Every structure is written in structure tokens, then in C-alpha cells.
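Milestone M4 deliverable, item 7.
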Amino acid sequence: MILPAPVNLKEYTRFPLTLTLVFLNLFIFVLIFSGNTSSVSDSALLQEDGLTLSGRLYYQYLKDLPAKDLYSKPSWVHEMRANNLDQMGVLGSYALRDADFLNVAETLSYKGDDVQIATWKKQIHDFRKEYQEQLLFRFGLSSLAKGPLSWLTYQFSHSNWIHLLSNLMFLVLISAAVESLSGSWVLLIVYLVGGLAGGLGFLLSESSGTVPMVGASASISALLAFYCVAEVRSKVRYFYFVSPMPGHNGFIYLPTLMIFPLFLLVDLANLWSSPEGLGSGVAYAAHIGGTVFGLLGGYAYRIGAKGLPVLTNYRQ
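Output delivered:
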């Protein structure tokens, strides 16, 4: 593991907004999400037989779609074959993420076992109800939940402790670096607007997806990209950790632009390699959206800061 760590975090009073952002993410998780045990993972729809049946019924749904709507679906969907059970299971997984389908699934007519289909429709009804009652759905951002507040609340919401702590580790280091470089107001703008740009990137890539996005990673990507462009020093300090043994962890100095291959290009590669509509659980498109804003913001900061040397007095 290697992370950019250009500032001394012991001088925590220099980073009031960084501490505030960390506190808000932690406080919201403890207050709202830490005791949440509701889940739809036990639904019969998510078992092997349920996914296979969902795939078969979704296959019938696709056959009746207008050509324009049909070809808006991922290209791999068109290659599925109804007589292949494995492919129908994969297609069923995608069907349960397709908001367009879920909105009409209970009202459509299907060919097959009437009793089995009636049971499936009841399961779909219960699945949608339970899904929309989940905290992650109400606080996250998706094609089904994209109200004005969702664009903000998703940036401070996390699905579990591991998700929260991994993001906070990055947030502490890169937020402190940005706040030291350019001040609290710039940090706030990059965090919030970078999160909005990440949300836009996510919705563009998941235009009819039902899985909500939560987490600060889009904002963190914006901060990483901003710092990478705005910091004019050729090298900054990084923290590396291989093991607790002496010599296997510590600090090294590397070019600022190493942030690109270490973090930002990895997101781009993962986005290209993930099957459309069947992500790995990481919203790489949101990372890319945040990164684009961060790059533009960092460039704008460098242009504007040329005549304002006082802004650089906080560097370390």
C-alpha cells in the first residue's frame, strides 16, 4: 500500500475542514448506518432459481421492446441465449438492477408456468418494497433515488465499517494536503462539487440502474486529481506499508504525478474492464467523474494562484 502523505498530521489544528469532513462521515455512519441490519440479500429472487427465472422473464421482456430501447441495453445482453441456464442467471442479475424493467415487471404478461410467474411477481413486489426501505437506498444516489438531497447525502454515507475506514484513510491524507495547499474554502468546493461530478458520471454510466451509490470516493478522487495538478513541487512525500516489520514501512519521496498511475488510471482501467450494468460494487464511473472535475479545478487553481503567492504559504 502506498498513499500520498505530504503534510504532518500532528499539526491537526491547521486542518479544521479536514477534521470536520472526517467527523461528518464518521458521525453520519455511527448515527444512521452502523446499527442497520435490513437487507434484501435473503430474497428468493437472489437465489439461483430466482435469478434464472428472472432472466427468462426478462428475456421475454426484451423481445417486446422497441428497437431504440432494446439497443440502449449493454451489448452483452443481446448475446444471451434462453436455453443457457448460466446465461439466464447472469441476465436475471442484470434484470434486478434495471429500473425500467422493475417498474413494469408486475404488470407484464409472460409465457410459462402461471403459478410460478404469480409467485415471482409477488416476490418482485416485496423485493422493490424492501429495497426502497433500505437506508442505503434513501441516502444513496441511483436512477430511482436522485432527488436534490441524494446528491449530497450519498457523499457522506457508507455501506459498512470497512468501506468507511478505507475512505477515511484516504480522506485524512489528501484533504489535509489540499487544505494545506489552497485553504479550507477550496477544499470544501473540490469535495462537494467533485462529489456532484462523480454522481453525474455514475448516473450516466448507470442510466437505468437500481443499485444506489454511497461513499466519499468520488470526492476523494476529485481531491487526488486536484492536488496532482495544483501542486507545483516535482516530488512529494508518500507513505508506504508492506508489513509492520522495520524497513517495511515508512516515507519516500516520489513525483506528484505518480498519483495518476497509482490511483486515477487504475480507476479508468477498471471501468473499461467491468461488464456494463454488472459492476464489481465499486463505482468507477463516479471516480472518473470526480477526477475530471479535480483536474479542471487543479488547473484553474494553478492559473489563478500565479498572482497570489500568499496562497502557497501553508505548504509543507
